[in-house]
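Researcher: Please translate sequence to structure tokens.
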Amino acid sequence: MIKAKIDNKEIELKPDQLELGEGYGLITPDNVPKGYFNQDAVNNIVKENVNKVKEKTKSELIDDQSVHKSILSKYNVQLENGKPVGLKPTVDIDEVKKNVTKEISEQYEEKLSKLNNELESRNKSVINSSILSAVNGQFKEDWTKSFDGSDPLVIKQFAEKFTVDESGKAVLKDPENGGVKFKGDGKPMTPQDYLLDESRFGELFADKRQRSTNTNAGGGTVRRFSEEDIEKMSDEEYAKNRKDILASIS
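Model: Translation complete:
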């Protein structure tokens, strides 16, 4: 809409309501005099000209040998007849190799150290659980239970004697040859094979002589547990049934 004042009164007119005399015309963003461009046309022309200048500048830079020389010199590249032939003598190739090797080695050592720590932690867990599984319900309680939050005595005493083989199982080390000890059948000796040898560790075994009655000293009924039951028990179950377990194996 077009606003106009007539007798100090403002009115609004549509473009087609205007009656313009000869030589006058109404110019709007979309209605421009013949030979002129509207705003969209001007924008497109400017954009096209800018793109042409950019392409021309890029082409000139590509062909400008002084620009090549400046860039290559910045990265210590030696030129001969305007062509790159190698690094400048000021660059110590051996030092570059040394630094690259050092950086790669440090990254490798860091990853290797992390993997070794994870592997040691896993192996320790395998060995400890295998030992406890073998002696739980067999050795005396003071050897198999932790009373201060640390590892049970059997772990402290025997864990170092075992390692983990390629199959992921705990096996007995052979300190004489640095390998693994084998049984007569050619299989590696496990914690169960080694620790449950009463001729070697008989004094560590719990006394399993059976009572003549199923009642305890107080006259109450004792719940009997088999060795298999005891081996399958969690620490919580063992603690809950400790009295009857001790009575079962004593």
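Researcher: Any highlights?
Model: The chain is about 45% helix and 10% strand.
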